[in-house]
Amino acid sequence: MQLRYAFRLYPTVGQRQALACAFGCARVVWNDALRVRQDAHAAGLPFPKSADLSKSLITAAKKTEKRAWLSAAPVGVLQQSLRDQDQAWRNFFDSASGKRPGPKVEPPRFKTRRDNRQAARYTRSDRWSITDVGRLRLPKVGDVRVTWSRRLPSDPSSVTVVKDPAGRYWASFVVETDPASDLLPEVDTDCGIDLGLTHFAITDQGVKIDSPRFLRRAEKKLKKAQRVLSRKVKGSKNRDKARVKVARAHARVANARKDWLHKLSTRLIGENQAVYVETLSVRALARTRLAKSVHDAGWSQFLGMLEYKAVKAGRQLVKVERGFPSSQLCSACGVKDGPKPLNVRSWTCGGCGNVHDRDVNAARNILFEGRRSRAALTRQHIPGDVPALTG
User: Fold this and answer.
1) What pLDDT, in 10s, does the model give residues 214-223?
2) CB burial readout 135-148, b (16+ within 10 A) else e
3) In this structure, are residues 271 and 191 in contact, taking their beta carbons and an 8 Å threshold?
4) pLDDT tens digits for 198-257?
5) Residue 310 to residues 4, 128, 266: CA-CA distances in angstroms?
6) Relative to the CA of 3, which of 42, 242, 276, 336 has its CA 20 to 30 Å away?
7) Rounded mean pLDDT, 337-365
């Protein structure tokens, strides 16, 4: 299983300049390759290969006066920029042909120095390393100070240095992990979860987890910082400083939300052998008047955490289709009572007379449907599972 580990970097002023040079060189090679491929497509020529582009846009370009400064960046960073673009084109073609599931992928676009996120990937050919004292040694940059929050489970083959919109630097590693090292002992409990806005999550046992609403709580400070930014002269240094302040304010909100979601997802996976959730169309809900609250909740991020942590711990995450009428069924007798407006938070079943809390009832129905789907999936994977003949 592959996992990504990110650690904070603290480069010096000179190292920041060297990293900015690497970011810029990788960006120029990307743009030059994209321009060549677009021109070839417009002229009806074959799609240029990365090997040919590497010779013309890197090796030969370094010998010209116009691109001689590409020598200031490691060659592996420049070649990796071409490989990344190959992957971007592959994703676009697979998405256009229907081979890649999910939302449609747009073709690669040109990059600019004004992009808030800058990145450069160093491969083994660049001879980067981690020193004995815990510094990240990068070619033509030097030994960069790193804050190691945990140990890497294996030796990474590459490192991506990222500068985020808030001006922070990160070292990102993708490493292989041992699937058996993080397995948890089996438990007999499972849990059905209904996600919402008033309460972030409601379990089938009636436990309601309030939504922290990190964005709403920080909205006053964010508005003030954004108002200051809007009054700065475009292109001025003061505007750039104000932009960084706005980005840092948003980063604090995102970090707080991410930390809270990590803790909640870890607890749910640790306490239950199986977790059942309903899939949500976040993109559709984000087009309604509840868009800000939907984005503030972070449902997609939460489901992604549950998914990879379930695989890592040997648990099961079962997603119930969004078309399942969890709010319309009585969890006691199964009678379908029809759709209800959002302001109806409790209702009485016409079949058995039970009074249901809307969210708790939905969580119980998700639990029952998840158990049914899990049992059906288990039967499909049992070899020789043939129903007995009777009569």
Assistant:
1) 999 999 999 9
2) ebebbebebbebee
3) yes
4) 899 999 999 999 999 999 999 999 999 999 999 999 989 999 999 999 999 999 999 999
5) 16, 33, 9
6) 276
7) 84
Would you state the structure tokens that stand for residue 152, as one six-digit string?
A: 């890497």
Cβ-based neighbours of 114, under 8 Å, separated by 6 or more = none
Please give, one letter per residue, the 3-state secondary structure of the chain: CEEEEEEEEECCHHHHHHHHHHHHHHHHHHHHHHHHHHHHHHCCCCCCCHHHHHHHHHHCHHHCCCCHHHHHCCHHHHHHHHHHHHHHHHHHHHHHHCCCCCCCCCCCCCCCCCCCCEEEEEEHHHCCEECCCCCEEECCCEEEEEECCCCCCCCCCEEEEEECCCCCEEEEEEEECCCCCCCCCCCCCEEEEEECCCEEEEECCCCEEECCCHHHHCHHHHHHHHHHHHCCCCCCHHHHHHHHHHHHHHHHHHHHHHHHHHHHHHHHHHHCCEEEEECCCHHHHCCCCCHHHHHHHCHHHHHHHHHHHHHHHCCEEEEECCCCCCCCECCCCCCECCCCCCCCCEEECCCCCCEEEHHHHHHHHHHHHHHHHHHHHHHHCCCCCCCCCCC
Which residues does the annotation mark as catalytic?
Answer: 194, 278, 359
CA dist 233 → 58, 92, 222, 230 (Å): 38, 38, 19, 8
In angstroms, rounded to a whole number, what is the distance separating the alpha carbons of residues 386 and 87? 44
Q: What is the mean pLDDT of residues 139-158?
A: 94
φ, ψ for residue 185, nearest 5 deg:
-65, 145
